[in-house]
Amino acid sequence: MRNILYILFLIVSTVHSQEKMTTAEATILKEKVKAQAALTETITSDFVQYKHLDFLANDIITKGDLNFKTPNMVKWSYVDPFVYSVIFKDENLYINDEGQKSDVNLSSSKLFRQLNKLIVNSLKGDMFDDKEFDITYFKTATNSDVHFVPVNKKISKYIKAFHIQFNNKGDVVEIKMIEPSDDYTRIVFSNRILNKTVSDAVFAH
Amino acid sequence: MRYLLISIFCCLISCASYTKKNNFLEAESVNEVIHNPYFSDASKDYVYKAKIDVYNKSFGGIFIVKKIAKNSHRVVFTTEMGNKIFDFLFQDDDFKVNYILEEMDKKILLNILEKDFRVLIRENENVLSKSINDNLTLLETKIVNKKYFYAFKGEKLNSISRVSMGKERVVFLFSKISDASAKNIQILHKNIKLTINLKSI
Question: Which ipTM did the prediction report?
Fold first, then answer.
């Protein structure tokens, strides 16, 4: 009997581990993140990426570091298990694949520009645009978890939802991009530092 | 007349069998079955860093293969950042596209990818002929009406060649082989400029 109660308690506490925020709580979070984003000139961070495919036994784990500099330069550098970097800069994608360099111009693709804008905004956490997303606010024991569902059909064909987790300071600690198939990419940040000097040379190709 | 003779001669040479051209001697094969072990373990996630060179363009990604049931495999390609490019299901001789990026949804390309990946994942094939040259054994089979030669060095499958009119059209090279898996795989197309390099990660 005690075991059953214990199991019930566990189930109940799991269900309750993520509950919806009140409107007031959501407003406070939104303002905190927006204020933080407005002051963010640079972000440097380590990250671990988990690619989840429902049929795999384990997520595919890749690791690296990230540099962001306002208004819209982003560099993702993967170091493990392969060396690869991609820079988003001036409507171009610059790729360095184990020393082999290539670039892709995105100016002709509105969709890619939109996706790029989303990536930059999600890094800062500032995606609170009710015209572009249906937004739902949740709180967990330690973090806030905000679900952004794109309204634009062209975008929702690629990404069903973004789930962004913020710590109590309003920093982004995790981004989850969910595909229409429910497979997802989860990126967990660590050693995240705001407004450290980041040289433009970091984004040179 | 001389032109005709040259033509006939050329034709005879090019029509010579693939095995003879490569100095293989025919051997007897009694009820032998080809076994390709490289994607046959259902408990394993096969994950490769891929580099694809096509007509002087090069792009990379993550290539994933998983055996999900007997004679059934999922083959998925994503960018390094995790965006899915294609997601295929192979089940016996059937082929289903679960997803493909709109820009890549071209019949001709899908045909090539289907044929290439089908060969990678097929495990057991009947042997139609067997020939031997030094320490290499060449086993011939047919997969969905295409002729293939599997080259074994001892127990190890070194390469697979798709052959038509006595010529190699596509070659699959397996290297750094251990524990029934190939750490490096190269798919080389001879009649179009397409090369796929896979490195296990």
Answer: 0.84
